[in-house]
Amino acid sequence: MRKLIWSGVVLCGLLGGCASTPEKPEEPAVAQSEPPVANPEFAPGESPKNTTSQEGKAPVQAIAVDANAQPGDPLTIEGFRAFRDVLDVTVRHGGGCREHTYGLAWNGEFQQGTDGTPVAHLVITHDAKQDMCKALVMATPRFDLTSIVERFREKYGKSTGAVDLALPGQPTVRYEF
After folding, report:
1. CATH of the domain at 161
2. Which one of 32, 103, 125, 133 is CB 3.0 to 4.6 Å from 96, fit for a cystine?
C-alpha cells in the first residue's frame, strides 16, 4: 500500500511540475526584404558538411612542387573543395598539445583523366611535431591553386579550363578556372 501511495505522490509531482513549466514564447518572424540566396561557395549538389568553424580563417599556403612528397604523420582527409583559386582540405587527426603544420604537394605534371580532363594528383603533408596527445583535432588548411592554373596554361596554352584534383582515398574534385 505504501508503494502505491508513494507512486501516486511521485506521479502527481511529475505531472504538476511539467504542467507548471512555462512555455517559451515563440520568436516573432523577421521579415526579409530580399529572397534567400543560395550559398555561393557551394556548387549545386555540393554539400557543406565537410566544413568547420575554422574554415576560411587559416592562411592560404602555396602548393609545393615535389615529385617525392611524403604524407608524414597520419591523418584522415574528411573532404576537400576548390573555390576561387583556393583549395580547402578538411582533415582529422590525433593530437591537441602542439601546433601541427600541413602542406600540399604535387609532382607538377598532369595525368590524363578518363574523360580527357587533366588530373593533378596531390599529397597532403602533415607534421604533428611529436604531439602524443589523444584529442581528436579537426583542421581545414587552405592552399593556393594558382600554381596549378599557371602550369595548365603553360602546357595547354589556354587561359581557362578545368583540372580534376585528386587526393588519396577521396573522389576527385573538378576545379574550373
Report:
1. 2.60.40.3220
2. 133
Task: Assess contact for 72 and 125: CB atoms under 8 A.
Answer: yes
Residue 99's Cβ-side half-sphere holds a number of Cα atoms within 13 Å equal to: 3
- Of how many residues is the chain composed? 177
Tens of pLDDT, residue by residue over 133-153, are 999 999 999 999 999 999 999
Other Cβ atoms within 10 Å of 149 Cβ, number: 17
Domain containing 117: what range?
A: 59-176
- Domains of the chain: total: 1
Mean pLDDT over residues 13-41, rounded?
43
Read off the DSSP letter of residue 51: -
Q: Hey, what's the cell of 4?
A: 502505491
Q: Are the C-beta atoms of residues 145 and 103 closer than 8 Å to each other? A: no
Instruction: Please give the average per-residue pLDDT across 23-27, as a whole number.
Output: 46
pLDDT, tens digit, 9 for 90 and up, residues 60-102: 999 999 888 888 899 999 999 999 999 999 999 999 999 999 9
Does the residue 6 lie in any domain?
no
Strands (E), 14-68: 60-61, 64-65
DSSP class of residue 72 equals B
